[in-house]
Design a protein that fits this description.
Number of helices: 17
Oligomer: single chain
Bound molecules: 5-amino-5-deoxy-1-O-phosphono-D-mannitol
Radius of gyration: 26 Å
């Protein structure tokens, strides 16, 4: 996700901003840029890694007082090009922005009508021209700045500098994070997250939505819509590691809690009023396609399998799902009417990558669903859709799973839409569901406490069955994988209807069944399967919005009107349960034994 750093003061702004951007790299980005203002602007922008920007700025040095703004961009509107990289520029103003301006198209049309020329495809560029337009009818820069932010709808954290006031930075926050730091030497700092400021400033203001103002040579002016407000400073954490974990016990826990935000980032700009839109994808990719082959490993394989239910149900496209490690050695029959979709968090998994190369060699069209831009899988694929999970540190994948799942869910609707296989009413219903996912993914303290208590009963036994039907079967697989990865307990995922074909022979009180029982998908069928296990004395924990009398334990989920909302809520439950069991067993949750985050070897 985009990152912002700003600095006003007499020290080396170039170095301070580049170091800050480096600390924000974990958020993920595809281009970066900096503007330094002294008597005039000096602007550098570069696509790709921050090192490209550093190289470009090598011969540039700054000394004396300056105002500087820097940015790492994760593309939403417009491709990752130099023109689309921030800071964006007007005639005498530069700006960096994190978030999405929802009414940018309307504002842009108006500004073009007034003669403004746009040099990027971003939503951000409207802000800079709008400010310069507002200045014509304002008595001061600040008045123009206020008028500008009043006209913006959507989410923003922004910093603006303008030439005729070269010792000031204007700022505003709505929806996206922004922190303001200050020290006794009169220096002012801005950043999207405190990790960029640790070690260089000790006290900061965590700006709230609706806050805006300016900093000027040692002074801060902070206000909201009602007028000037008190400046509440907090002390910054001492270590980066603690800051990055934000007081969570483990990165995995933090990443589970982040899912609501990163899923909402993943939906941003892609879910419109009545349709799904992937700016980054050229529709011709789907011309002549009769089958989709989804290929992945581990958790990513589970999203592939889960989405195969959606592609066939919603888009009415035939789907096959492949493990990378199997596909590459089994001489598959490939036909050119198949779209090969690789799914990977890292974009570097050796088996998925080798399978992709094979598919390319056979002349198949290829699409990557990936969390890391410029990774091998993204570079090799014809086209890519990036999940926007930010860097995932926990080896056990959580937020990458959630964001892959929503991308694939959107893609199934998108395909249904471009092939005319989904009605307008259905599209509306699916879109409404997508919009409700971030809220569903909010972890409440009630749920977390319940699972913490529950976890103490699930530490031993001879094994776990995670069971579910339809799309809840891949979720059961994922629940079992999470548990075994970090607790080292034996766990298997099964389709609930398969129990009586063999696995039920294992049922006894020491076999724990975690049963996914949604109300909107095969409720009665799944319930009977769980009862069969209960009758054989398995210890059963049911996860469902409807009470289940025979259960030994019960986690009540909310009542939703779409099975995908139940899917995401149950995903949270199995992730939290696995983590709490592992914590009780005193395992290293973030770095489990024998596992690596990115499996780049066979
Ligand atoms: O980076 P990828 O998504 O390609 O990685 C695939 C698997 O190695 C990965 O999902 C693995 O299973 C995780 N440890 C799951 O938590």
């Amino acid at each position: 996700m985009c990152g912002i750093v700003g600095y006003l003061g007499k020290n080396n702004s170039k170095e301070i901003i580049l170091n800050g951007l480096k600390e924000l790299e974990y958020r993920g980005y595809d281009s970066a840029g900096i503007t330094i203002l002294q008597n005039d602007f000096v602007n550098y922008r570069a696509v790709g890694k921050l090192s490209n920007l550093v190289e470009k700025m090598d011969s540039f040095n700054v000394s004396g007082f300056s105002a500087g703004i820097g940015h790492t961009r994760w593309a939403t509107h417009g491709k990752p090009t130099e023109e689309n990289a921030h800071p964006h520029q007007g005639a005498f103003t530069h700006i960096v922005h994190n978030g999405i301006i929802e009414n940018y198209a309307e504002l842009k049309k108006n500004l073009i009508g007034k003669g403004y020329k746009f040099s990027s495809q971003t939503d951000t560029e409207v802000i800079v021209h709008l400010f310069e337009e507002n200045l014509k009818i304002s008595n001061s820069n600040y008045e123009a700045f206020q008028k500008t932010i009043e006209q913006l709808h959507g989410a923003y954290a922004l910093l603006l500098i303008t030439k005729n006031e070269n010792e000031k930075i204007y700022f505003a926050k709505e929806g996206s994070p922004l922190i303001l730091g200050s020290n006794e030497n009169g220096e002012q700092f801005f950043a999207s997250s405190d990790s960029a400021l640790i070690g260089i400033v000790e006290k900061v203001i965590y700006l709230h939505d609706g806050h805006f103002g300016f900093v000027e040579n040692g002074k801060i002016f902070l206000q909201n819509a009602s007028g000037e407000i008190p400046q509440n400073f907090s002390a910054l954490p001492k270590s980066r590691e603690t800051a990055q974990k934000n007081s969570f016990r483990y990165f995995m826990e933090k990443e589970i809690y982040e899912q609501s935000v990163v899923v909402s980032d993943t939906l941003m700009g892609r879910v419109l009023d009545n349709s799904i839109n992937f700016d980054e994808v050229d529709k011709t990719l789907f011309d002549g396609i009769n089958e989709i082959k989804l290929c992945a490993c581990g958790t990513s394989y589970h999203t592939a399998l889960a989405s195969s239910y959606l592609f066939e149900r919603i888009a009415k496209v035939r789907v096959s799902v492949e493990f990378g490690s199997e596909f590459r050695y089994r001489d598959p029959l490939l036909t050119k009417d198949t779209l090969f979709v690789s799914i990977s968090q890292s974009g570097e998994t050796a088996d998925t990558l080798a399978s992709l190369k094979m598919a390319k060699k056979s002349g198949l069209k290829t699409l990557a669903i990936c969390n890391v831009d410029n990774s091998s899988i993204v570079r090799i694929s014809d086209q890519a859709i990036l999940t926007r999970a930010g860097i995932e540190k926990g080896v056990a994948s959580t937020k990458a799973f959630a964001t892959q799942m929503v991308v694939l869910q959107m893609l199934s609707i998108y395909l249904g839409q471009i092939r005319g296989n989904i009605s307008e009413t259905e599209i509306k219903k699916e879109i409404q569901t997508l919009r409700e996912i971030p809220q569903t993914l909010t972890v409440t303290s009630k749920l977390h406490e319940k699972i913490k208590r529950l976890s103490k009963r699930y530490l031993h036994g001879h094994g776990f069955f995670f069971v579910g039907r339809d799309i809840f079967y891949p979720l059961a697989l994922e629940g079992a994988l999470k548990l075994k990865e970090i607790s080292y307990l034996h766990a298997e995922g099964y389709p609930a209807g398969e129990m009586k074909h063999g696995p039920i022979a294992l049922a006894d009180p020491e076999l724990f069944t975690i049963a996914l029982l949604p109300q909107n998908m095969l409720y009665e069928k799944t319930k009977s399967n769980i009862e069969e296990l209960g009758a054989r004395d398995s210890t059963i924990c049911v996860i469902s919005p409807k009470p289940f009398e025979l259960a030994d334990d019960f986690v009540r989920t909310s009542s939703h009107n779409h099975y995908m909302l139940e899917f995401f809520e149950m995903m949270l439950v199995v992730q939290l349960l696995s983590m709490e069991v592992a914590i009780r067993l005193q395992n290293d949750v973030d770095m489990p034994r024998n596992l690596a985050k990115s499996v780049t070897v066979e």
